[in-house]
Automatic annotation (TrEMBL):
Transmembrane segments: none
Name of the molecule in the record: Methionine biosynthesis protein MetW
Molecular-function GO term, any one: transferase activity
Gene name, Swiss-Prot/TrEMBL: metW
Gene3D superfamilies: Vaccinia Virus protein VP39 (3.40.50.150)
NCBIfam families: metW
Alphabetized InterPro entries for the sequence: Methionine_synth_MetW, SAM-dependent_MTases_sf
Source species of the chain: Propioniciclava coleopterorum
């Protein structure tokens, strides 16, 4: 994955999946870097949702519209089909109710982009076998200060997508160094440090 416009590699990949001129909702937008890029270079209209006050201020300074609310509450207040694409980048594992968040995302947009760390990555498994909780580039926290509340493998996550009637249009898997993995099936569940999914509710056409 290449870097562009100051985007970290996974955000550059996310940006590549968004059509020019789209209405974009970025959940857990942080300092608004992705939306700033999409608005300035791709003609998109965007709104971020962020609860960290310092990040909200940084996004506003960039000129990015931000809703300063918890993601669960903000989603419940949005009308159906309010956006073309909704992004949830490296945030799902921090949600108290990830199932509900995904259901609301499918309601407010016809396309969903979700990126997650893979807790099934083989070094994480080896660290657990050694009696320690995983710490890695994708999971850079100790057990006592981690914001992560949900620990999922790619296989478990894809089972949840299927349960919720979400169709995987594209799946990108990559190593912790950012190298794309050109493989399918279950192998990335062991070898991928993280993944980006492009989803749509069943019944929606691409």
């Amino acid at each position: 994955m290449s870097r562009r416009d100051g985007l970290r590699p996974d955000l550059a990949l996310v940006a590549d999946q968004i059509f020019d001129g789209s209405r974009v909702l970025d959940l857990g937008c942080g300092e608004g870097i992705l939306l700033d890029h999409l608005i300035r270079t791709r003609g998109c209209r965007g709104t971020g949702v962020e609860i960290d006050p310092d990040a909200v201020l940084a996004a506003i300074r960039r000129g990015v519209p931000v809703i300063d609310r918890d993601i669960d509450v903000a989603l419940a207040d949005l009308a159906d089909d309010s956006y073309d694409t909704v992004v949830l980048s490296r945030v799902l594992q921090t949600m108290l109710r990830p199932e509900s968040v995904l259901q609301h995302m499918a309601r407010v947009a016809e396309r969903m982009i979700v990126s997650v760390p893979n807790f099934g990555y083989y070094p994480n498994r080896l660290r657990l076998l050694g009696g320690r909780m995983p710490i890695s580039k994708e999971i850079p926290y100790a057990w006592y200060n981690s914001p992560n509340l949900r620990f999922t493998t790619l296989t478990d996550l894809e089972d949840l997508f299927d349960h919720l009637g979400l169709v995987i249009d594209r799946r990108f898997t990559y190593t912790q160094s950012g190298r794309r993995l050109r493989m399918s099936g279950r192998a990335p569940n062991l070898l991928a440090g993280a993944a980006v999914y492009v989803l749509r509710p069943a019944g929606r056409v691409r």
